[in-house]
Write a structure and sequence with these properties.
Number of strands: 26
Structural class: alpha+beta
Oligomer: single chain
Number of domains: 4
């Protein structure tokens, strides 16, 4: 049955059902009978009372659902390989970074060795270039410069001699113009001068080279010289990192702390890259519970709640963290997610849980014991006890004669009728003995936990009868035999989306007249019991 959650309110020893503003009814019993003390001055009923208290009334919605992990992740290796080891089992708790499954791939291991060797070679070349020159290297370079300088000096000297010889030869035979080829190649010719000049140029180039090598040997390596070597090292290291990343995929690690939900691989099996080998549930848990469309507006994200495992006694504080905007088409319910403030070890995914969500909180609410509420003609009421010493004989007599004529039927004449006369005549004496007059006040019950009920229409501090009102009527005199304490708060729950009992009805039961006492079974229960008001007094 769909609809708004039914709130169950316990009244006395029975149960009252409130749905969409229907009246409360006593259904399964009545308060204990009061003890009447009959004497010459009249009748005073001994009752227990309680003072209405101003406290906190909390309305809560009860839901049931299943515990689930807030995150569930299938895990797969990034490379292919043979399963070498599985280090966990389903249901095991793991920490972040823990190795779960290990693979073996010989090709990757060979690639890693090659990449590391390339890095070592590049680093060695760079280190050699960065080493400063030794004294021996500097001496060799300087010796080369000295030799080149000597060679250059010798070449220059030869060149000067060739030039001088050529001049002398020219001066010795100025008139000879038809020289033969053999004469042109003789010492002192222009050919000798050209050869000597070329030797000078070659010696100068050798000297320049020797000086450059000496300068390089004595100076530290430049950035331009080292840059190619540095680049080679960087490239080798990048290649090594790629291979190492692939090798790391051989060890499948937990990305977060959680619980292994399932393992689908076996040792020795060859798996491909991206093949799921196990599923990991996160450590954080939540409860998903269905809520009816009628109760959904009662909930807000952030509402406080309590959570307990079905059948368990420990409760956890929780909060509403999500409300689904889409209904389940088969059940016509919405999913609400509640997250506990902590995850104790006894809370596991898949368990059935019961949650209670606080939907309203009223401060300064008027609270009374549930047993104080009686239903007369479909109206919830309480018997209010007046202060001591205020009962008047005339008022008592008048009240008795005008409010309860139904009690005096032909059937009940006799001793009880005489007792009533005695009470009329001795009301003043009863008041003198501490008798207190009672009145009926209509109330509207609201939140209840079956023991304490929030009511409206009553002021805090009002004294109400909680036991002994079976044969009471307005204007009767009572004597307080005990006082019941009222808690400072009450929490009433309704079952989300479920009706716990049929709707109340008045068919098949007698309606009690105003002021009539309520006997056992008196209520609108569809014929469950007969009204016995009027049997007393």
């Amino acid at each position: 049955m769909r609809g708004r959650a039914t709130k169950v309110l316990a009244i006395g020893s029975g149960v009252a059902l409130a749905a969409a503003g229907t009246a409360f009814a006593v259904t399964g019993g009545s308060p204990p009978k009061g003890t009447r003390h009959e004497g010459k001055d009249g009748v005073v009923t001994a009752v227990e009372v309680a003072r209405a208290t101003a406290g906190t009334a909390i309305s809560a919605l009860s839901l049931s659902g299943a515990v689930a992990a807030t995150s569930s992740l299938p895990l797969a290796p990034g490379v292919a390989g043979r399963v070498a080891a599985i280090d966990v089992v389903a249901g095991q708790s793991v920490r972040a970074g823990q190795v779960l499954v290990s693979l073996a791939n010989p090709v990757l291991q060979a690639q890693l060795a090659e990449a590391r060797a390339a890095v070592a070679t590049a680093q060695a070349k760079l280190a050699a270039a960065e080493v400063p020159p030794t004294a021996q290297a500097l001496a060799v370079a300087q010796d080369g410069v000295a030799k080149a300088q000597a060679s250059l000096a010798a070449a220059e000297e030869a060149y000067q001699q060739a030039v001088l010889a050529a001049r002398q030869a020219h001066q010795a035979s100025p008139a000879q113009s038809g020289t033969t080829t053999t004469q042109a190649k003789s010492p002192g010719s222009g050919t000798d001068v050209s050869a000597a000049g070329a030797a000078v140029a070659s010696a100068q180039a050798a000297l320049n080279l020797a000086e450059a090598e000496a300068a390089a040997a004595s100076a530290p390596p430049s950035a331009a010289t080292l840059q190619p070597l540095v680049s080679a090292v960087t490239q080798a290291q990048a290649a090594e990192a790629v291979v190492e990343a692939n090798v790391a995929e051989e060890s499948l690690r937990a990305p977060f702390a959680g619980t292994v939900a399932s393992v689908t691989a076996t040792v020795g099996e060859v798996v491909g890259a991206g093949t799921t080998v196990l599923t990991l549930d996160g450590a954080a848990l939540s409860v998903q519970a269905p809520v009816s469309q009628a109760d959904l507006p009662l909930l807000r994200t952030g509402d406080p709640a309590t959570l307990s495992i079905l059948g368990g006694g420990t409760t956890l504080p929780a909060r509403v963290t999500a409300l689904s905007p889409v209904a389940d088409p088969s059940a016509l319910t919405f999913e609400v997610t509640l997250t506990p403030t902590s995850n104790p070890p006894w809370l596991h995914p898949g368990e059935a849980a019961v949650v209670s969500v606080v939907t309203a909180r009223a401060a300064n609410a008027v609270l009374v014991p549930a047993s104080a509420i009686v239903t007369i003609n479909g109206t919830p009421q309480v018997f209010v006890v007046g202060p001591p010493g205020t009962a008047k004989a005339g008022a008592a007599s008048a009240t008795a004669s005008t409010t309860r004529p139904h009690r005096h039927t032909h059937k009940h004449k006799g001793a009880k009728h005489k007792a009533r006369k005695a009470r009329k005549g001795g009301a003043a004496g009863s008041a003198a003995r501490g008798g207190r007059t009672i009145t009926l006040v209509s109330v509207r019950p609201s939140i209840s936990d079956g023991t304490t009920t929030e009511v409206s229409g009553l002021a805090p501090g009002t004294t109400v009868v909680v036991s002994g009102q079976t044969y009471l009527g307005p204007g009767d005199l009572v004597r307080v035999s005990g006082t019941v304490a009222v808690p400072s708060s009450v929490t009433g729950s309704s079952v989300g989306g479920l009706l716990t009992a049929p709707s109340p009805t008045t068919s098949g039961a007698k309606a009690a007249a105003p002021g009539a006492g309520l006997g056992a079974g008196s209520a609108a229960t569809g014929g469950a019991g007969k009204a016995k008001g009027g049997k007393g007094a």
